[in-house]
Amino acid sequence: MQDIWVIQHIRQETPGTLAELLSARGFKLRTFHPYLGDSVPTHPENIAGLVVMGGPMGVYDSEEHPNLLQEMQLIQNAHQAQIPVIGVCLGSQLIAASLGAEVRPSGYKEIGWYNVKRQSSTDRLFGSLPEQFMGFHWHGDIFDLPEGAELLASSALTAHQAYRVGESTYGLLFHMEVTPQIVQDMVQVFQPELEQEGLSGAEILNQTKTLLPELRNLARQVFGAWIDLVEARQPLARACPLPLPCDLMA
């Protein structure tokens, strides 16, 4: 079975629940850590899927973080090759930017537990979710939808919380992947940001104890459906290895 490539931008923001499910389904994860000096490939070579995680930098910070340009090229190439892609927070912004949409500072921070409203009843990942559920958020940037994208979820503060482009490229601005450890690590490392916004890390952690179990259940449903798309593509990948052209992948 082919590897899943993961791009991780900071130690604390791991794939969490998604990684657990991928490992349980037999996939091997190859993780690139550009913050530790890893070079990010620009071409997806014999991979089953691509996961792009969050981080404190912005899409527009490519001068300080040149790996972001490599990542956007990789995302674009994977999407064009119909390799399933999923991005979380910064990852969703990188997908949007790589597919031609604008990403910009929102002028506000959406941090903590806020309601998410499902916007699609037919999407494979989101269609069967509750109409509303509590999601975990930590972002200050927003994005327009790429051309042809379907909006999947919104919040009161942010119209575009999740979207799909094509059959298997997904962006999630909010965090479905979080575990208790991830939330604790984020609260600890980003404590100055919480203080600047007048937010309580202790309150976020208390809410997490109550709200995270249900989000984890929904995450298993959403990520499990994305892994189904990855598995469904495996025969296609074997029949049509990259970078050779293939009519089935046109």
Number of strands: 9
Helix residue percentage: 25-40%
Give the oligomer, counting copies of the same chain as homo and different chains as hetero: single chain
Secondary-structure element string: EHEEHEHEEEEEHHH
Layout: helices, strands, pairs:
Layout: E1 3-7, H1 16-24, E2 29-32, E3 47-52, H2 67-80, E4 85-88, H3 90-98, E5 103-118, E6 132-143, E7 150-154, E8 162-165, E9 169-172, H4 180-189, H5 191-196, H6 201-239
Parallel strand pairs: 1-2, 1-3, 3-4, 4-9
Antiparallel strand pairs: 5-6, 5-7, 7-8, 8-9
Helix pairs in contact: 1-6, 2-3, 4-6
Give a nutshell description of this structure.
The protein is α/β, with parallel strands linked by helices and 250 residues long. Helices cover 35% and strands 24% of the residues.
